[in-house]
Structures are given as C-alpha cells and as structure tokens.
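Field log, afternoon session.

UNIT: design team B
ACTIVITY: writing a sequence onto a fixed backbone
BACKBONE:
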C-alpha cells in the first residue's frame, strides 16, 4: 500500500511550525515574461490557438481552473469545449473519492484519440490527483499522450511548463511533495459575471482519518487579509453579486498570519465594502465554528443566510474514529446556536455512509441526527478508501451492498425532508439573485442558497428580484417575479 511521508503530518499540525512560502513578485514576473513569450509564439500562427480546461472536484479546483484559463488567455489562447479542436487540454483533477479518479483516468485514456487526430495537441494533467504518490509515475508509464503533469503547488508555473512543450522539450512531471505556497497576482478568467469564488486560504491541517485533502493540498495557509479585501473590493466594483469565500476550513482562517486575523472579522470587513452583494463561505468545520461566527453573520446584512456545516456521522464512536474532534451533542448545540441567532438560516451538510466498521446502530444514529436537524439539503457519500489515509487500513466487515442500502435509506429520508421544507415556502415571497438560465426557466437563488426557477427575460440575470413562491419539489422552488 502507498504511504505518505508523515513529515507533513508532523509539520504544523502538532505545534511544530512549518515554513510559510509565498511566491515572490520576482518569481511571478518570470512567469509573466514566459506568458509573453508563449503569446508571441502564438501571435505568429495563422489562426488563434484553442485551449480547453476541464475541472473535477470542489470549488477550490474551480477557482484554480479560472487561474489556468486566465493564464491561457494571457498566452493568446481562445477557449473551446471541443477536445478535437483544442491545441492545449488541461484536466484539473480531484482525488477525494475513487469514483472521481476512475472518471478522470477513463477520460484521459480517451484523449489518446484526440492526440492521434491532432498530434501537436498538448495534454496536461494537474490538480490533487497528480499529487498522490505514484500517480505521476503511472501517468508517465501508461498514458504516453500526456505531456505535462503538475500538482496543485506548481500551478503558478504553468506558463513555464507549456513553453517547454512548445519548444519541443521533454515531458514535464512536477509533483514534489510540499506544504504548499500562497500565490498572489495570477490572472484569472472567471466563469460567471454574477458569482465569484474568492479563495481565502489553502490546504488543511485536520487530517480527518478518511480524507486525502491534507496530503495533496498541503498545510493550512491563509491569504493576507489585505489581499482578500482588495480582491473582494474589485469584485464588488466589477458588479459581482455573490462572493463565496473558499477554504477547506474557513473558521481557522488567519491562524498562520501575523496578528492572527479572525474569519468572523474578515466577514465583517467584507460586509463594510460598498455595494449590493451576498457573502457566502465554505467549508466550516464544526470544531472551529461558534458563537462569534453566528453573531457576526446575524448582524452583517450581506452575509447569506446559509451555512454548510458537514457533520459526517451521527455516532460519537464513528466521529472519533474519523478524527473529527467534536461529538454529536456538540454538533447539535452548534445547530441550536446558529438557529437562535438566525431562525431563517438554511443548513446543509456532508455525511459519509459506511465508514469502516460503522454498524447498523451507528448508522441509525446518523438517520436520527438528520431527522432531528432537518437539513435543507445533504451531500451524501459512500466511504471510499484513499490509499495512505488511516481509514483505508481500518477493518471494514460490511459489504458494498449493505452500505448502498444505508445510503439509499439516508437519501430517501433527506428527500422527504427537503420536499417538506420546500413545500413550506409556497405562498411566501423571497429576494433572489437571478444567476443564469436553464431551458425555459431563469435560475435564481435565495439568500439561503435555495434554487428558485422563474420565467422572465434573460436581461434580469445578475439582478436581485422579489419572487412569490408558487410551487416546489425535492430539489427546487418555482416562483413568479413580483
Ligand atoms: N473540508 C471540508 C470539511 O471538512 O467539511 C470538506 C472537504 S471534502 C472535499 C468534501 C466532502 O467529501 C467531505 O465533507 C466528506 O463528506 C467527503 N469525503 C472526503 N473524503 C471522503 C472519502 N474518503 N470517502 C467518502 N467521502 C469523502
Ligand atoms: Fe478533509 Fe477533514 Fe480537511 Fe475537510 S477538514 S478537507 S474532510 S481533512
Ligand atoms: Fe478534490 Fe482536491 Fe477539492 S481532492 S474535493 S479537488 S481539494
């Protein structure tokens, strides 16, 4: 079995300090120079070259892909969705579950056809999966059409890797293990003109026993508050209406910075930026969320009435084996506190079914917690063993079929609750942000993040509107513009 270098586990996590690496202006200036060199090469072509960036995984990866697109655009590429037409393909991968990895490898395998049809095509793989021990080697040996492989810590060096390929250089494999770095000032091409990701920190120190993220994303490191605020100001000035602060555990924001600026204070400072926009954030870890966060959300008019607070399991034994560092009762106390401050708060969560050794009774504890809290929505996952994490080598006597049955029971329960909660909106009015279109409907979101489908002119996209809720189902509300 693969083993991680536990140097990473001891650095920074148990009080031993690790070195915070910030990419310097000089290092970035060099990459900008290389971007210009690529742009010059591309300017000499008859037609503008095309690039495709495909993203798997979480919002952090979405935000990284916006940077990859920003760099590609600065290097003279136009974006395409056609993998046969693309001159450069970048696949930004996720390692969190085996299923995600299998999909990536299947799709990368299929790209051998596009490469055959267009031999000059440069195929690049990056993201969390590439940082797994042994993965780069596997790509090197079995996927010869892939030219460039780099992990999340090397993203800022993408121009250098691409130029090397354009100049006929050797295949690139840059996945040295690292605690990670903070990079400011990379260009970014955002996917939406209405909603924006705003990463405030990277990495994770929590080492939940099932999770691969801390190994592939490095240690927690925060962007300086002034950099986050400057970006938030630019987004508000550019007319963004929905800003989501990103981090694996946003409640520990700032602990590695001088003066230890606090996450709640950051929300309050963003709330003071002029403009009509919503502030969202994800993800919060229950062990670090508390009264200050809820009271700040309650008094900040721009803070969306939504909190995503993963509980993972309703059983104290399983929570302890997961290394989550809170109990079921402590979690329920947090929910009560959040609701006391914000009675209309929308609550969503993540839960894992079939953690190694989870018994039927322990799973029942999860069902009971879901009944008790009545979340608005749940993201449910079947445990997926990740090589090198402690949970992957825990005894696991339960079969996939047993786990699937539990999963189905949980989804059925949550669907009933979501359906009931949605039905209660009928007849009420809500302020929504119209954020896109889907077939015959415009899509919009309440402050709590509930999807409301409305009919109207697409010119309304990017505006806040009042709607009357007229219908609902398990997944969405339907409304009429007032
Ligand atoms: N940092 C966030 C937190 O702690 O809540 C979550 C990040 S993780 C990308 C998103 C979700 O994936 C987790 O909340 C967990 O429910 C799920 N997850 C992580 N590792 C998993 C595994 N090995 N098997 C199944 N689900 C997993
Ligand atoms: Fe993974 Fe836990 Fe970190 Fe979330 S807090 S990224 S689940 S280790
Ligand atoms: Fe996946 Fe990496 Fe996010 S493992 S869930 S893309 S941090």
């Amino acid at each position: 079995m693969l083993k991680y270098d536990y140097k990473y586990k001891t650095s920074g996590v148990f009080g031993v300090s690790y070195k915070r690496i910030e990419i310097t202006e000089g290092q970035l200036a060099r990459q900008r120079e290389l971007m210009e060199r690529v742009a010059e090469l591309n300017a000499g072509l008859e037609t503008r070259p095309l690039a495709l960036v495909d993203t798997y995984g979480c919002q952090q990866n979405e935000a990284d892909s916006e940077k990859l697109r920003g760099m590609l655009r600065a290097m003279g590429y136009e974006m395409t969705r056609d993998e046969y037409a693309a001159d450069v393909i970048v696949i930004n991968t996720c390692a969190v579950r085996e299923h995600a990895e299998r999909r990536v490898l299947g799709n990368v395998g299929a790209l051998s056809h596009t490469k055959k049809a267009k031999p000059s095509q440069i195929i690049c793989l990056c993201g969390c999966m590439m940082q797994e021990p042994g993965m780069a080697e596997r790509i090197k040996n079995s996927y010869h059409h892939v030219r460039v492989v780099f992990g999340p810590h090397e993203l800022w060096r993408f121009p250098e890797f691409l130029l090397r390929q354009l100049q006929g250089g050797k295949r690139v494999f840059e996945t040295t293990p690292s605690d990670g770095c903070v990079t400011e000032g990379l260009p970014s091409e955002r996917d939406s003109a209405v909603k924006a990701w705003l990463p405030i920190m990277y990495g994770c120190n929590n080492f939940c026993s099932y999770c691969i993220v801390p190994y592939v994303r490095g240690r927690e490191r925060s962007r300086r508050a002034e950099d986050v605020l400057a970006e938030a100001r630019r987004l508000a000035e550019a007319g963004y209406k929905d800003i989501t602060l990103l981090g694996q555990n946003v409640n520990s924001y700032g602990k590695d910075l001088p003066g230890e600026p606090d996450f709640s204070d950051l929300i309050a400072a963003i709330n003071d930026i002029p403009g009509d926009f919503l502030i969202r954030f994800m993800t919060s870890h229950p062990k670090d969320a508390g009264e200050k966060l809820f009271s700040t959300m309650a008094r900040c008019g721009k803070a969306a009435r939504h909190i995503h607070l993963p509980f993972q399991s309703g059983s104290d034994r399983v929570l302890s084996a997961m290394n989550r560092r809170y109990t079921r009762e402590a979690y329920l106390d947090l929910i009560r506190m959040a609701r006391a401050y914000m009675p209309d708060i929308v609550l969503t969560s993540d839960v894992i079914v079939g953690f190694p050794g989870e018994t039927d009774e322990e799973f029942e504890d999860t069902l009971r917690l879901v009944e008790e809290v009545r979340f608005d929505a749940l993201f449910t996952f079947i445990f997926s063993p990740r090589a090198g994490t402690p949970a992957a080598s825990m005894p696991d006597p339960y079969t996939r079929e047993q786990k699937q049955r539990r999963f189905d029971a949980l989804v059925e329960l949550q669907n009933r609750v979501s359906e009931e909660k949605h039905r209660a909106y009928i007849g009420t009015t809500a302020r929504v942000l119209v954020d896109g279109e889907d077939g015959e409907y415009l899509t919009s979101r309440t402050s709590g993040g509930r999807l409301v489908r409305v009919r109207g002119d697409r010119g309304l996209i990017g505006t806040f509107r009042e709607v009357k809720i007229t219908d609902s189902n398990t997944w969405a509300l339907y409304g009429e513009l007032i």
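LOG NOTE: The pocket of S-adenosylmethionine (ligand 1) is lined by residues 58, 96-97, 210-211, 213, 248-249, 283, 285, 310, 312, 350, 352, 381, 383-384, 386 (CB under 6 Å).
NEXT ACTIVITY: expression trials, pending approval
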